[in-house]
Automatic annotation (TrEMBL):
This is SET domain-containing protein. InterPro entries: H3K4_H4K5_MeTrfase, SET_dom, SET_dom_sf. Residues 31-40 have a biased composition (Low complexity). One of its GO terms (cellular component) is nucleus. Residues 31-101 are annotated as: Disordered. Residues 377-696 form the SET domain. Residues 48-83 have a biased composition (Polar residues).
Length: 736
């Protein structure tokens, strides 16, 4: 008997069964209701005037169901002009063979859904599998195209990802759109979530399987029947493994094909490319390699050129970074091995066009001053013009906020005293208060009696006050959730990053317990994250083109960020993997809770990086050995004071942070000689004077100070003292 006879009979039988099954589907109405049945909760209720229950003004209303963007002009100068007043019709029903054809006549939400339906990765015609990926549309270089992409992202974020949070193709489409708009970091985040969903769809024991599989099933049912049969018929496994049984089993077999050939490879690509563009070369290299292996295993003997290109692109970038010759590179064993590659990159630091949480701080000065009055009755917040330190020229200035004296303040007077629950410490077994991070008193000291424990998880607090404040503000989200070991006792080189991530973890817990958006926490809301403030214009996007040439030329990786400035340190570990792990440990669903999207975390990190104070956990006087910056906190009023290397306050942080007016100002270097410096100023602060903090050790020389404060200032310090001292040394004092 012909050896192929039996398998062919199997295929015929299988296809007959499949046809019968497909024919039995009642397409439109049942599919719609099936999808609705798996829906997540609707977006937060929005009142007629657009304000949410928490007081935040939202520019669109759920009843209007239109992208919010057309209603507002962003503070970053990006205006969104396109109007598409269509309801996003709930997707449902087979697309009648039209999924390959996008019609501009369709309303945009439907077009978006169509785009998701059209996502294919392999060309599986002629019984052969070829990796090609969806055609990656280039951004046409006009403002309307950019606005449309932004609107699409908002539509996806506000509607589709809320209604179908576990739907793989929607995650992938979102990732693709982020990449096109120059946010490879956000693209990598969505691609990683898509990879998790690929596992969830295929693994019945996965926690998200009961949501991810039905949502994908309903989606696949909307594809044209002919297309579904073609995909099945091309699969070699169809011959041997197509289950004889029920429509449900057949459907799962079909899902597996779509995941293996289309969604999984696309997710690998988007993740690897996104990470490479961000400069996370080690993880990008590893994910590309992992992707190649996985695609080969799941989709047959195929090779993905994009992923190969990513390994080459990473290698090229790192060699350039390290300035190595071919021989040095090989000798040191870096060929085909990304283990030692750098893994910390930088991404755009901005108020995202869809971020509606950033307040107009000048408008809200009265609210800010009410908060200030509680911690510093003699101080007030005002607008102030500061030199722009980002290299835009000597005379450029920016309007920001600063803190000023409302009345005369005597030398030595404590003028601000603020406590915060937004604290972190990165030592696992250290004797610090869990809430305010103060060093706990020695066991046999008189104060030891005030120390208390959480009865559930044994977290330790310096006092009943801290315990009850913790309970009201964050502790319930972390209590007993096995978060203690995360990010603790890390090597010194990772200490700062671990502290920022621990602050993020605390902010998530605070938002969860206080039931508010993390960006609306009072500790966070008014912090300026040193965002770049440049408009997003077509000039940035003409070149993004993902080809072999661009993916392997590290000089062009900037194009992946729309050539906009990148000043926010970023890594896969701290910005994607760990935040998702934290959410899961706090029992917050990382897919279904839009408040905890990865762009929200980037925004929080931007705010923390310029404003968090750090100190040694072994403080002078505590009797403990100091070991490096192990404790960090964000004090929202304290951090509104600007920097000077001739400060008029000193600060100290124990359980609370304090500003004390200096008795004596610092002596400028060189002022003792002839042609001395302007006269040394008196201690204390006069009414109307700005409160000047210091972000670096003011005893250092001008070079040391500038080096130290650069990170917190976003450029070289150009305070009066620095300019004068640099001038004395004949160094350019403009700080550029
Ligand atoms: C901790 S915040 C200070 C408050 C800030 N001005 C605001 O509006 O929120 C630090 C940021 O203020 C700005 N800044 C503070 N001191 C400055 C100085 N001496 N010169 C220029 N910019 C300064 C920088 O943008 C820096 O990143």
């Amino acid at each position: 008997m012909d050896t192929y006879q039996k398998p062919l009979e199997n295929v015929d039988a299988a296809l007959n069964r499949l046809n019968a099954t497909l024919a039995s589907y009642k397409i439109s109405s049942t599919t719609k209701s099936a999808i609705t049945a798996t829906k997540s909760p609707a977006p937060p209720p929005v009142s007629a005037n657009g304000s949410r229950a928490n007081g935040h003004t939202h520019s669109s209303s759920a009843s209007q169901c239109v992208p919010a963007s057309k209603h507002f002009q962003q503070s970053n100068g990006h205006s969104q002009s396109t109007q598409r007043p269509h309801e996003p019709t709930p997707p449902g029903g087979e697309v009648n063979g039209a999924s390959a054809r996008l019609s501009d006549e369709l309303p945009r939400p439907d077009l978006l859904w169509q785009e998701a339906l059209n996502l294919r990765f392999c060309d599986r015609s002629n019984q052969r599998t070829m990796m090609q990926g969806p055609a990656f549309p280039r951004m046409p270089g006009d403002q309307i195209a950019i606005d449309r992409q932004i609107d699409d992202i908002m539509m996806l974020q506000e509607h589709y990802l809320v209604d179908y949070p576990y739907l793989l193709p929607i995650r992938l489409l979102t990732s693709q759109k982020y990449l096109q708009l120059g946010y490879p970091d956000l693209a990598a985040g969505e691609a990683y979530k898509a990879l998790l969903l690929c596992d969830a769809v295929r693994d019945t024991s996965d926690e998200y399987h009961p949501m991810a599989a039905p949502q994908l099933r309903d989606f696949i049912r909307q594809l044209p029947r002919t297309e579904r049969i073609r995909q099945l018929a091309c699969d070699p496994k169809c011959v041997t493994e197509l289950p004889p049984g029920s429509p449900a089993e057949l459907m799962d077999f079909e899902l597996d094909i779509w995941v293996r050939y289309h969604y999984l490879p696309w997710a690998h690509r988007l993740l690897a490319v996104g990470l490479m563009y961000c400069g996370c070369y080690k993880t990008a290299w590893y994910k590309a390699w992992q992707g190649m292996t996985s695609i080969d295993k799941t989709a047959g003997d195929v090779n993905d050129q994009w992923l190969v290109d990513v390994t080459v692109g990473c290698e090229q970038a790192v060699r350039k970074l390290w300035g190595m010759t071919d021989d040095e590179w090989k000798d040191q064993g870096h060929s085909n091995n990304g283990k030692a590659y750098p893994d910390l990159g930088c991404v755009r630091r901005e108020v995202y066009p869809w971020n509606e949480w950033e307040p107009d701080r000048l408008d809200e000065l009265p609210a800010l001053n009410m908060m200030m009055a509680e911690v510093a009755p003699k101080l007030e917040v005002r607008a102030v013009e500061l030199p722009a330190l980002t290299g835009n020229g000597e005379s450029a200035t920016v309007m920001q906020l600063g803190v000023f004296a409302r009345e005369n303040i005597a030398p030595g007077e404590v003028v601000l005293s603020e406590t915060s629950m937004l604290t972190a410490n990165n030592k696992l077994r250290d004797t610090l208060c869990d809430a305010c991070s103060v060093d706990l008193p020695e066991l046999n000291s008189p104060e030891a009696g005030q120390v208390c424990e959480c009865p559930e998880c044994q977290a330790v607090f310096c006092s009943e006050t801290c315990l009850s404040r913790a309970d009201a503000t964050y502790h319930r989200a972390t209590c007993g959730n096995d978060l203690d070991t995360l990010l603790r006792d890390v090597p010194p080189a990772e200490a700062a990053d671990s502290l920022y991530s621990l602050l993020l973890m605390r902010a998530i817990a605070m938002a969860d317990v206080q039931e508010c958006h993390p960006l609306d926490l009072s500790e966070v809301r008014y912090i300026w994250g040193d965002f770049h403030n440049l408009p997003i214009t077509p000039a940035h996007f003409t070149a993004l083109n993902l080809t072999h040439e661009t993916l392997t030329d590290s000089d062009r990786f900037d194009e992946g960020h729309g050539k906009l400035p990148r000043t926010l340190p970023w890594s896969f570990e701290h910005n994607i993997r760990l935040p998702i792990q934290m959410l899961e440990k706090m029992e917050i669903d990382p897919f279904a809770e839009p408040n905890y999207d990865l762009w929200v975390f980037n925004t929080l990190f931007a705010k923390f990086r310029g404003t968090a104070s750090a100190r040694l956990s072994g403080q002078a006087g505590s009797g403990r050995r100091a070991r490096g910056p192990e404790v960090s906190a964000v004090h929202p009023m304290w951090c509104l004071a600007n920097h000077s290397c001739d400060p008029n306050v000193r600060w100290e942080w124990g359980g609370s942070i304090e500003f004390t007016a200096r008795e004596e100002r610092v002596l400028w270097k060189g002022s003792e000689g002839e042609g001395g410096a302007p006269e040394r100023k008196e201690g204390g602060i006069r009414k109307g004077e700005e409160v000047l903090n210091h972000y670096c050790d003011v005893e250092l020389d001008v070079h040391g100070r500038r080096e130290w404060a650069r990170g917190a200032l976003g450029g070289e310090c150009r305070c009066e003292r620095c300019v004068w001292e640099a001038g004395q040394e004949g160094v350019d004092g403009k700080g550029q």
